Prior knowledge:
This protein is an alpha+beta fold. It folds into 2 domains: about 10-145 and about 210-255, 2-Layer Sandwich (Phosphorylase Kinase, domain 1); about 145-200, no CATH class. About 35% of the residues lie in helices and about 20% in strands. It has 7 helices and 11 strands. The chain has helices spanning about 10-20, 65-75, 120-130, 150-160, 170-180, 185-200, 240-250, and strands spanning about 25-30, 40-45, 50-60, 95, 100-105, 110, 145, 210, 220, 225-230, 235-240. The strands form 3 sheets. A 5-stranded antiparallel sheet has the order 1-2-3-5-4. It has a 3-stranded antiparallel sheet with strand order 6-9-10, with no helix packed on it. The protein has a 3-stranded mixed sheet with strand order 7-11-8. The protein is globular.
Amino acid sequence: xxxxxxxxxxxxxxxKLVENNYNLKIIGVWQQFIxxxxxxxxxxxxxxxxxxxxxxxxxxxxxxSAIIPYLLSQYNVKHIIEPIKTINxxxxxxxxxxxxxxxxxxxxxxxxxxxxxxxxxxxxxxxLHQIHNFEIPNKLHNIxxxxxDNKWRKKLKKYIDxxxxxxxxNVFEKEFVEIIQSKKDIINKMIFRIEDxxxxxxxxxxxxxxxxxxxxxxxxxxTDNNFYIxxxxxxxxxxxxxxLMFIGAGIGNKWKKN
Length: 258
């Protein structure tokens, strides 16, 4: 039997929660340092005969991020990893502090580290089409709608205005501030352009659909002969371009050549 590794965020109480809700005996735990969400911790865990991917979400949790992938899979949408049901037939379990979701562990590579083949690109497009045409059950009314919030534009404007007041502590901060200052005019033009486009879009008739919301290369998991769309925490009802822009924009400089 392997020695059980305890990770700080996954204490004995959390391990017992998983064991009791999924009828498992955990003998190994390894934290996976992937993703950029500070509210999410993920682990590879091992039971006596199988490996699992454990996701712990702190703070606000929208159950649709587990329910929608499950329903898509039932709807015969391929390339989805279904959450594993608890012994009570739930797709996740909760405490006052966090939510736990369990998946099969699939050993693969991020789309940032390996390429989709031509055939996989075609299949990826078909899968997105299925997602965008999925009819959402009425009970899942808590999925966010795209409202073109100006939250991040306001923050960016604020930071640009503060550049001359920043107390620089080291050479790295100095270089960063200098780069932003040198590009300040371009950034302001981009903000103005975005706000102009949003004003035009608000007058247009738009067709909204279910969107993943963050479908960049890092949220594609590739194995030797398959791929999976992962991380559904950003689900949103929006025009399909909400997803398609990630391919066209080449997020992470990965998809530009396609």
